[in-house]
Amino acid sequence: MSKATFRERSRYWFDNTMSRGTAALIGWLAVISVALIVVVSGLVLWLTPVEADKHHGVTGVVWATLMRTLSPGKVASDTGSAPFVALMFVASLGGLFIVSALVGVLANGFKERFEQLRKGRSRIIERGHIVVLGWSDQVFTIVRELVEAHASRRGSTIAILADLDKVAMEDALRTHVGDTGRTKVVCRTGRPVEPADLDLMNLDAAGSVVVLSPQGEDPDAHVIKTLLALDKRAGGHPPVVAAIASTGNMAAARLAGGPAVHLVDSDDTASRLIVQSSRQSGTSVVCMDLLDFSGDEIYLRSDPSLAGTEYGRALSAYQTATVIGLRRAGRVMLNPPMDTVIAAEDEIIVIAPDDSMIHLADGMPKAQEDAIVMVEHDRPGPERTLVLNWNGRGRQIIRCLDGYAAPGSVIDVASDHPDAATGVEGLVNLTVNVKDCETTDRYALESLGLGVYQHVIVLSDDRYDAAHADTRTLMTLLQLRDMQSTLGERYSIVSEMHDENNRALAEVTRADDIVISDTVIGLLLAQLTENQHLAEVFGHLFDSRGSEIYPRPANRYVRAGAPVSFATVIEAARRRGETAIGYRLADQVSEAPHFGVVLNPDKSRLVRLGPDDCVIVLAEH
């Protein structure tokens, strides 16, 4: 390598100074301006001594040259000899280029500065705030629910860090969430995996952190990388809640985030809810009601005054709260045996509209013995289930169904998806068949002979984007609804969709249940942000082992049409080893937002439950 020449060194030095930004550019323009003024002033003093004397010597000439340089228009008023006018013209011409360049440099510098200000690069100084890392459609659900939860709390703050324009994020939140009331929402532009960007969120003082799966390919890789960045950073580590899209990545996410991270398995949770809803109509509505903050929620409460009381006796202990289980030594028990004795250190799991409304009743309400009936539940036999469309969640759904179905049950997958029903070997109770079908075509659907099925599940086709997949699902649901009306067939229909806004459109189809998978995960993340211990509770609710939510015919518990208190319903369920948490009215199943579901009713309020109404219980299947 030859030695660098003086010209190369000079150019290299000049390039380095120019790369320092707006200040360096202004500095070079100042140097050029000074050089121009010095040269022109020197020539005026040398070549035009008469005009130099008229301008009072060196000082006056320098001032005149400076004015021509900064204000080129002044040259029009110059008089004197030709050399003097020519030199002033040169100064004005050079000044024209210098001023133009200065204006351009300043405009560009201000633009860059404003762009930086738009990104919001100042460090957040809040304390106890909730930090959301990443951006997806779930962010709107999470922010909306946290705003609802913090409606009565002053100084609440939600801070969002994502690799998007700050103003664009704020506009999207205003459009989808609206007024946030007392809760302040702060957005920052940055990458959640960069330590410098994480420092902007003041994580040492944060109350909790939510990590979202970004939209696009391989979202779990981004979540895991963010968990690694959070685990490796110095300073305090607030509780972290994260959503993992694929069950297969859960082990890697646990290793990346450590034991303190609460992970939500999106595929598994949505799959279990779809399966439970397909078998028991109304299950998804009940779960959504428990997950959102607008109605009743799940709380853990220590109440030593109930120590020594059997669980079955404590079911009616609260007037405006419903007992559903116990948390003992860190282990959750939903609907435990009725003779389980409550210990002083146990936490009681209750459903209540607010933690301030959890109070022991003055006295245990009396059950109406003459209204209680004990009709045995039907034991389900082999069933046929039809799955329309296919996506990566389909395998999990079939495996979950295998845990519920009676031996000899059949599931048919009708789809033109190339991966339909692949990877579902080793089933115990189910036989799986695959049928090629264009699920939006009426004649193709009729050829399936839907009358032989008890349950139909319509999945979202993952070959299309979310909006198009929802449109195809709506078309399929409309065809099914018309076929039911025309042929007089009856089978439960559960549909999976992406966009909550499409639910109102889907209600026209009168599907039994519509599971908005992204909304469910967003609601669950919001709940865990407020109380990480609820992860175990919801994990049990969505698990086929143990007790789950079941809407069951009310006439198997109380006399149809008789005015009964909810305390009577609780007692009727208790005698079966079940925990009653509410009921569903058949004549209101199409009325949003609760679709006939009433959770945690007042124990003494009378209600008439007809033969088509349901009692919602926690029970083993």
UniProtKB/TrEMBL annotation:
<dbReference type="InterPro" id="IPR010420">
    <property type="entry name" value="CASTOR/POLLUX/SYM8_dom"/>
</dbReference>
<keyword id="KW-0472">Membrane</keyword>
<feature type="domain" description="RCK C-terminal">
    <location>
        <begin position="288"/>
        <end position="366"/>
    </location>
</feature>
<dbReference type="InterPro" id="IPR006037">
    <property type="entry name" value="RCK_C"/>
</dbReference>
<feature type="transmembrane region" description="Helical">
    <location>
        <begin position="21"/>
        <end position="47"/>
    </location>
</feature>
<protein>
    <submittedName>
        <fullName>Lipoprotein</fullName>
    </submittedName>
</protein>
<keyword id="KW-1133">Transmembrane helix</keyword>
<dbReference type="InterPro" id="IPR044849">
    <property type="entry name" value="CASTOR/POLLUX/SYM8-like"/>
</dbReference>
<feature type="transmembrane region" description="Helical">
    <location>
        <begin position="84"/>
        <end position="110"/>
    </location>
</feature>
<keyword id="KW-0812">Transmembrane</keyword>
<keyword id="KW-0813">Transport</keyword>
<keyword id="KW-0449">Lipoprotein</keyword>
<keyword id="KW-0406">Ion transport</keyword>
<keyword id="KW-0407">Ion channel</keyword>
<dbReference type="GO" id="GO:0008324">
    <property type="term" value="F:monoatomic cation transmembrane transporter activity"/>
</dbReference>
<dbReference type="Pfam" id="PF06241">
    <property type="entry name" value="Castor_Poll_mid"/>
</dbReference>
<dbReference type="GO" id="GO:0012505">
    <property type="term" value="C:endomembrane system"/>
</dbReference>
<dbReference type="InterPro" id="IPR036721">
    <property type="entry name" value="RCK_C_sf"/>
</dbReference>
<dbReference type="InterPro" id="IPR036291">
    <property type="entry name" value="NAD(P)-bd_dom_sf"/>
</dbReference>
<dbReference type="GO" id="GO:0006813">
    <property type="term" value="P:potassium ion transport"/>
</dbReference>
